[in-house]
Design brief:
Elements: E1 18-22, E2 29-30, E3 33-34, H1 38-52, E4 56-60, H2 77-87, E5 93-94, H3 100-107, E6 114-117, H4 131-138, E7 143-146, H5 157-160, E8 168-170, H6 172-186, E9 192-196, H7 201-212, E10 217-220, H8 225-231, E11 235-236, H9 246-253, E12 258-259, E13 263-267, E14 277-280, E15 283-284, E16 289-293, H10 295-306, E17 310-314, H11 327-338, E18 342-345, H12 348-356, E19 365-366, H13 370-379, H14 383-391
Parallel strand pairs: 1-4, 1-7, 4-6, 5-6, 7-8, 9-10, 9-17, 10-12, 11-15, 17-18, 18-19
Antiparallel strand pairs: 2-3, 13-14, 13-16
């Protein structure tokens, strides 16, 4: 069970209250422009609620991995421009993170105005969870709102520091993520079907174990499927295999609730013009790579999904970004979109896939945090959520 977190309504916000809002604006950029603004638009309900209350809003976020140094390619300037467009107001960017200029800009805000400080990870104190850096951040607000679900699994300064000092609450996005994912753990409707893809089995072992306690069926795709196939005695050519996970995969298959591909699409190289072959999953020729589930598997998975009352999907079925290997993920995405059950897509590449295929508006909930959603399912809690709860007991 995921314990509840304090919500916006629990926070005293009135005209002139300055709010330090930790958002997750870690969005892909292309040529100085925001390529996918999902995480920005997801923060708008919280920002608009605070503006309606007359708050003065100081937004902060990380972007990429600048390794504690100022790196112009990771500047939040494109985010500030896109946020300005979405809100219909000017959202200035402070060129520093937490310091005198940011403080001066924050103090000059008027009710309903919004500003953004520069990339938190430009300062090494963010990822190091440095107390002095966290203290500087808290100077920017009277209260703290965490709406950065995608970073809630990180014990970083902006996530776990401010709630220990300022009155704190979860934003709309974070509260919804906890509600939805917590519901999958506490009381999912059955049949509950989990779909897991991705590259490495080792990255998903904890999640697999957690889901097997709740799911009726777990469908496996992506490169991680080939370790399961070897555990079953199959030949997988040059496909990626984690030898140290074969025994564990054999144990998981013995539960009888995990399904793996029966056919796959293979090629000698992973390119957009690759010549593909369709082969049995356990009979991949030497020199060939498995790069997508086959049509038989995709069709069967779609049938299983169609009978589900709850569906959780995390991880593509193949290299869907390249058309020769997109069919499996496309079929599964379509089945999830067509499902009459409650559907959750667990962020990351899966969220990119449903957007890529134009199906995002037919999913009940798309998580903004791939790693955070998996960790919450696996562990039942996150450092960011724990910090918010501790803050309520000051």
């Amino acid at each position: 069970m995921v314990d509840p977190v304090p919500r916006l309504e629990d926070l005293e916000v009135e005209r002139g209250t300055r709010v330090l809002l930790r958002a997750d604006f870690n969005v892909p950029l292309n040529d100085g422009k925001v390529e996918d603004d999902l995480r920005i638009t997801a923060a708008l309900p919280t920002i608009e609620y605070l503006r309606h209350r007359g708050a003065e809003i100081v937004c902060c976020s990380h972007l990429g991995r600048p390794k504690g140094k100022v790196d112009p390619q990771f500047s939040l300037a494109p985010v500030a421009r896109r946020l300005s467009e979405l809100l219909g107001i000017d959202v200035p960017l402070s060129p520093e993170v937490a310091g005198f200029e940011s403080m001066a800009r924050a103090e000059s805000l008027h009710p309903g105005e919004v500003m953004l400080i520069e990339n938190l990870r430009f300062d090494p104190g963010e990822e190091a969870n440095d107390a002095a850096f966290a203290a500087n951040l808290t100077q920017l607000g009277d209260v703290y709102v965490d709406d950065a679900f995608g970073a809630a699994h990180r014990a970083h300064a902006s996530i776990v520091g401010p709630p220990l000092v300022l009155p704190a609450a979860a934003g709309r996005l974070l509260a919804r993520e906890v509600e939805v994912l917590g519901g999958l753990l506490d009381a999912p409707k059955h049949p509950f079907v989990g779909i897991l893809g991705g590259v490495k089995v080792s990255d998903k072992l904890g999640v697999i174990d957690a889901l097997l306690q709740r799911c009726d069926t777990l469908l496996i795709g992506g490169a991680m499927a080939f370790t399961f196939l070897v555990a079953q005695g199959g030949r997988v050519g040059d496909s990626l295999v984690q030898d140290d996970q074969i025994d564990h995969c054999r144990e998981l298959l013995a539960t009888g609730r995990i399904e793996i591909p029966t056919d796959v699409v293979v090629a000698s190289d992973m390119t957009a013009d690759a010549r593909t072959q369709h082969v049995r999953a356990g009979s991949i020729p030497d020199g060939m790579l498995g790069l997508d589930i086959g049509p038989e598997t995709a069709g069967h998975y779609a049938d299983v999904i169609a009978g589900a009352k709850t569906v959780l999907w995390n991880g593509p079925m193949g290299v869907f970004e390249l058309e020769p290997f997109a069919a499996g993920t496309r079929t599964v995405a379509g089945a999830v979109a067509d499902s009459r059950g409650f559907t959750v897509v667990g962020g990351g590449d899966s969220a990119s896939a449903v957007a890529h295929f134009g199906l995002a508006d037919r999913i009940d909930h798309i998580s903004t945090g791939g790693g955070a959603s998996l960790e919450l399912i696996e562990l039942g809690d996150l450092p960011g959520l724990q910090a918010l709860r501790k803050g309520t007991r000051r």
